[in-house]
Automatic annotation (TrEMBL):
CDD domains: CBS_like. This is 2,3-diaminopropionate biosynthesis protein SbnA. GO terms for biological process: alpha-amino acid metabolic process. Residues 22-292 form the Tryptophan synthase beta chain-like PALP domain. It comes from Pseudonocardia broussonetiae. The gene is sbnA. NCBIfam families: PLP_SbnA_fam (TIGR03945). Keywords: Pyridoxal phosphate, Transferase. Its cofactor is pyridoxal 5'-phosphate. Homodimer. GO terms for molecular function: transferase activity. InterPro entries: Cys_Synth/Cystath_Beta-Synth, SbnA, TrpB-like_PALP, TrpB-like_PALP_sf. The keyword Transferase applies.
Length: 329
């Protein structure tokens, strides 16, 4: 039996889905969405809040402010409610309605930015708004998920060791890159303790994180419009970019096996499947990280009109195998 008093006290760090029947190679998918925040971002949010409390930055009466496209915002809404802090989440028009409602239900104030900064896009406009908030009220505290080292340290202390303990023979790990907290913490853990394990970063086509050109991206979670400050490519072996249409196809395919995952999981599994089809040898053990589940995407990835409007008819037979592109890190 597990009894908790605060929602952040519960997390599942040892659940994996065997995806061999789906992808045809040995692939274990680490499920990070089974906690009260519903995503991997609970780890970063808890670590950043605890560190800020410990160093005195975060005191009773404080109001957290953060720029988030969703999942970190939900995790911080939950922790702020549990600990009695205020929270203002600065997001943009790509934030799912369900995500926004979730944050508001947990007591957060949500500011939706609709006008991109001419040079730095929606993210730039969001960060400007955060700076304005900080200047307007000295109770505001910005943990800054884009630069806060406690975000990657959370994964160095939990995700990395957990995978190593469960899969001592792991050969390759596929990790999606947003702020790159998950990627950096896990990659650094393996670089320090099991350097032979191959780390494959997964990003969306249209993200500039690894130096490829910007383009439209509609699925939140992975990808950045600016280079992620936390990113250190020396601990990554390879990068795979995935088209959003392929992400959606994979989400739908997984859903038809009974597993409803979020968009970034579709992206990571697409990359892993393609990579393993090319590189796996008998006995290759692969792990991929699934950042959240699918319920948050009912109005987007799992809504046929939204999908058709943006990507056309994805059920049409296509032999478009140029959909994923691998580049050396
Ligand atoms: C659904 C989802 N996937 C992946 C990520 C990327 O995680 P990270 O910011 O640690 O790179 C996020 C981050 O918000 C997310 O919400």
């Amino acid at each position: 039996m597990t009894i908790i008093t605060s929602p952040q006290d519960f997390n599942t760090d040892d659940l994996y889905v065997d995806l061999e029947p789906v992808v045809g190679n040995t692939l274990f998918l680490k499920v990070e969405g089974l906690n009260f925040a519903g995503s991997v971002k609970l780890k970063a949010a808890s670590a950043m809040v605890e560190a800020a409390e410990a160093d005195g930055t975060l005191r009773p009466g404080a109001i957290l402010v953060e720029s988030s496209s969703g999942n970190l915002g939900i995790a911080l809404s939950m922790i702020a409610a549990a600990k009695g802090y205020g929270f203002v989440c600065v997001t943009d028009s790509r934030c799912n309605l369900a995500t926004r409602r979730l944050m508001e239900s947990l007591g957060a104030e949500v500011h939706v930015i609709t006008e991109p900064d001419p040079e730095h896009g929606l993210l730039g406009a969001r960060l400007d708004h955060v700076r304005d908030l900080l200047a307007s009220d000295d109770r505001h505290v910005w943990l800054n998920q884009y630069t806060n080292p406690n975000s990657w340290k959370a994964h160095y202390d939990t995700t990395g060791p957990q995978i190593a303990a469960q899969f001592p023979d792991v050969d390759v790990i596929f990790i999606g890159a947003g702020t790159t907290g998950t990627l950096m913490g896990t990659a650094r853990y393996f670089a320090d303790h099991h350097p032979h394990v191959r780390i494959v970063a997964v990003d969306s086509v249209g993200s500039v994180s690894f130096g490829t050109p910007a383009a439209r991206r509609m699925i939140p979670g992975l990808g950045m419009a600016v280079r992620p400050p936390l990113l250190d490519q020396t601990v990554i072996d390879e990068v795979v970019h995935v088209e959003e249409a392929d992400t959606i196809r994979t989400c739908h395919r997984l859903a038809r096996t009974g597993f409803l995952f979020g968009g970034s999981t579709g992206t990571v599994v697409t990359a892993a499947e393609a990579w393993l089809a090319e590189h796996a040898t008998p006995g290759t053990t692969a792990v991929a990280i699934a950042p959240d589940l699918g319920e948050r995407y009912m109005d987007t990835i799992y809504q046929s009109h939204w999908v058709e409007d943006l990507y056309g008819d994805l059920t049409a037979d296509t032999d478009d195998t140029g959909a994923f592109a691998a580049i050396a890190a």
